[in-house]
Amino acid sequence: MTITPVRIAKVVVFLAALVPAALLARGLLITGDLGVNPAETIQLETGRWTFKFLLLTLAVTPVRRITGWNPVIQFRRMLGLFAFFYATLHFAAYWAFDLEFAIGSMVKDVAKRPFITLGFAAFLAMVPLAITSTKGWIRRLGKRWTLLHRLIYVAAICAAVHFAWKQKVFTGDAVRYATTRRQFGRPIAGFGAIRQKLADMAVRLYASESMLYRVAGLLDEQIAHTTDGSAIAAAPAAVAFSMSRRVIVIGSPA
């Protein structure tokens, strides 16, 4: 077998694509540095890498047309299979950690929660793409193979909405402000660093809202179970304890 620059590049890309999975495995099994909620970290990271590899797969054809470098097409199948690989890890983590492999609970969750429905639809759309990615299937399906593999657009769109819905990046006054306020002739949401900060702000906003509901509930409980002024003295301690637990979960305040 002749060693060519393209073959070497494919080996490098293959090994690099395994790094995120290897780091997650090391963090889970050896170093224990996946944060206070390793299950959530694994789900988020595998989901993000699924979406990244989907985008890289879709980018192959435009790069080929723009640059005229035809060998880049040889990377498309491998990138697509890695997208499916991380999608499988993402689904497996969700099914194992959240549902403990309960099929009935999975069916109910998919039917009840729209963002889960979209994520599951993206995964299902990728299954026939992975199965028919071999040269044998290309010969069997002929022109139908190209038509079938347009499902990658369905998978990418569903994955994008699934991720954005999960992170709640479509909501909040900060996001609306960022899309209308202009700086240097562009909406401030157009700057990559600010987009990331807005997503983080949205997550913290919803976490804070949940914490406030918990605080209100604790105050009601204290008042309901006491008939004197001791409720006023006892409530702050309970509230502080609840807030400290929430801070541990969502991270240090910005």
Task: Write up this protein.
The chain is an all-alpha fold. The protein has two domains: 5-167, no CATH class; 185-250. It is built from eleven helices and two strands, in the order H-H-H-H-H-H-H-H-H-E-E-H-H. The protein has a two-stranded antiparallel sheet. Strand 1 and strand 2 form a beta hairpin. Helix 3 (76-98) packs across helix 5 (114-131). The chain is globular and about 75 Å long. The chain starts with a helix and ends with a helix.
Shape: globular
Q: What's the structural domain tally?
A: 2
Number of strands: 2
**Neighbour order of strands in the largest sheet:** 1-2
Residues in β-strands, percent: under 5%
Entry keywords:
single chain; 254 residues; mainly alpha; 2 domains; two-stranded antiparallel ribbon; 79% helix; disordered C terminus
Short synopsis of the structure:
This protein is mainly α. It contains 11 helices and 2 strands. It folds into 2 domains: 5-167, no CATH class; 185-250.
Write the layout of secondary structure elements.
Elements: H1 5-31, H2 38-67, H3 76-98, H4 103-112, H5 114-131, H6 135-141, H7 143-148, H8 151-167, H9 173-180, E1 182-183, E2 186-187, H10 192-224, H11 230-250
Antiparallel strand pairs: 1-2
Helix pairs in contact: 1-2, 1-3, 2-3, 2-8, 3-5, 4-5, 5-8, 10-11
